[in-house]
Amino acid sequence: MILTGTFSFFIAIIILIAILWLLGKSLKLLMKFLLNSLVGFIMLLFFNFFGNLFGIYLPVNIITSFVTGVFGILGIAVLLILKYLLHMI
After folding, report:
1. Torsion on CA atoms 82, 80, 42, 56, rounded to nearest 10
2. Among 12, 44, 59, 79, which residue's Cβ finds the most Cβ atoms within 10 Å?
3. Domain-by-domain residue ranges, the chain?
4. In whole angstroms, how far apart are CA 49 and each of 15, 18, 54?
């Protein structure tokens, strides 16, 4: 009788560890995306500050910040192509 309760306890601990490990992984991924979006937001602000001298700007919102944060300078180039060549943004 004591052996079955101990076995159930160890199974519950293993399941709890697995759940915490998965939450930790997803939390790290979420924090990485948030940090990248923040970096993208800052890059867009700098780009708009200096681009305003030449009449070039990009809207600053969550999508453009995310694209810039994930893809960096290439993301800004893609957003510029979408805005000025395809008139999508």
Report:
1. -130
2. 44
3. 2-85
4. 51, 47, 10
User: CB-based burial of residue 75 (10 Å sphere; 0-12 exposed, 13-18 middle, 19+ buried)?
Assistant: buried
Predicted TM-score (pTM) of the model is 0.62
Q: What is the CB neighbour count within 10 angstroms for residue 58? A: 21
Q: How far apart are CA 71 and CA 65, in angstroms?
A: 10
- Decide if 79 contacts 51 (C-beta within 8 A): no
Task: Concatenate the DSSP letters of all residues of 6-67 into one string.
Answer: HHHHHHHHHHHHHHHHHHHHHHHHHHHHHHHHHHHHHHHHHHHHHHTTTT-----SHHHHHH
The per-residue pLDDT for range 2-60, each reduced to its tens digit, is 455 567 666 777 777 777 777 777 777 777 877 877 787 888 888 888 988 888 888 88
